[in-house]
Design a protein that fits this description.
Distance between the termini: 14 Å
Order of helices and strands: HHHHHHHEEHHHHEEH
Radius of gyration: 20 Å
Largest sheet: 2 strands, antiparallel
Number of strands: 4
Shape: globular
Strand order of the largest sheet: 1-2
Helix content: 55-70%
């Protein structure tokens, strides 16, 4: 288990100093390529009408999802097992290198900063840069709405790209982190409630969306609580409002870290026509983006401390 503690530190160090692997070497890109190919195969057999349930598309998508998940988890398990015969420190270093592509804090931070920098140039540049991060229509967003969307993306993906992979790594090792990233990538590509880019995902994407909901349920709430903790006494005083604000979003999970960030910053975060988080909050300004990144960084720091403690306790038999 000590190798796991070292692996987490190695993964975060590599993430900070080297960033993402090249696209052709990135396992999450490989997952996306597989999901894109089998998703197109499912869509050729799916009903493109929303008039009635499409159980065929649902089960075909579930089947290819399970095949992909089994392959990803099996490869991760095999790689982890192959390292078991090495000294613990060597296992930790190599395991950390394998874990790194499954989390992406540095890239998330740089992309949010890039939106703020583009917004400083012009509203159009900010909208264009935001479109790299979100699937919503950005053409009519104001500068405040662009900034709010970037902060929302930071909060949501702090869970999806950082906290949840670490959570599942601590719990189940490299296979757990790999399975989570596969599930989250599938949800991002398939988990739409209806027609998206001319394809009907109402039933074809339902399995992927529900599995991701289940795997993200606890990590999302941990992310939210750690975000409030990162804001200090004020955030803790607002914890009682967290559940009500989180419930305003359609997602059972993403609302939690977004609501925590809105409350911690005391800003309103809005998706036009869908929800308003912390409606009494003020409009987000450029310094709020920087402060949001500070809160997110402190959340990651707190998580690493907790994760290391959990690993050490297990390794020393403190927990049965």
């Amino acid at each position: 288990m000590m190798a796991f503690a070292l692996a987490l530190l190695v993964a975060l160090a590599v993430d900070r100093y080297f960033g993402e692997p090249r696209v052709r070497l990135h396992p999450v890109v490989w997952m996306g390529n597989y999901l894109g190919w089998v998703g197109a195969w499912v869509q050729r057999r799916a009903q493109q009408s929303l008039q009635r349930p499409d159980f065929k598309a649902f089960w075909l998508a579930a089947l290819v999802w399970c095949a992909g998940a089994a392959s990803v988890s099996g490869v991760a398990w095999g790689l982890q097992a192959a390292l078991g015969s090495l000294p613990w420190w060597a296992t930790g270093v190599l395991l950390g290198l394998l874990l790194k592509p499954l989390l992406a804090w540095t890239m998330l931070k740089s992309e949010v900063l890039a939106v703020e920098a583009a917004l400083a140039e012009s509203l159009e540049a900010g909208r264009e840069r935001l479109s790299w991060l979100v699937s919503r229509d950005v053409t009519a967003l104001t500068d405040t709405q662009v900034r709010e969307s970037a902060i929302e993306t930071l909060a949501e993906n702090l869970n999806d790209s950082v906290v949840a992979p670490i959570f599942w790594f601590v719990l189940l090792g490299l296979p757990g982190a790999a399975l989570y990233r596969f599930a989250n990538t599938a949800d991002a590509m398939w988990g739409y409630p209806g027609i998206y880019k001319g394809q009907n995902w109402a039933w074809a994407g339902k399995w992927a969306a529900r599995v991701d909901d289940g795997l993200s349920w606890l990590p999302a709430r941990i992310t939210a609580l750690l975000l409030l903790l990162a804001t200090g006494v004020r955030g803790l005083a607002l914890a009682g409002r967290l559940r009500a604000e989180a419930a305003k979003t359609p997602s059972p999970n993403s609302g939690w870290p977004m609501a925590a960030m809105a409350l911690g910053l005391d800003v309103g975060l809005r998706k036009p026509g869908v929800y308003v988080l912390n409606p009494a909050g003020r409009a987000a300004l450029a310094p709020d983006t920087a402060q949001a990144l500070v809160y997110a960084s402190n959340t990651l720091l707190a998580l690493v401390v907790i994760a290391q403690a959990a690993i050490i306790f297990v390794a020393n038999g403190v927990w049965p």
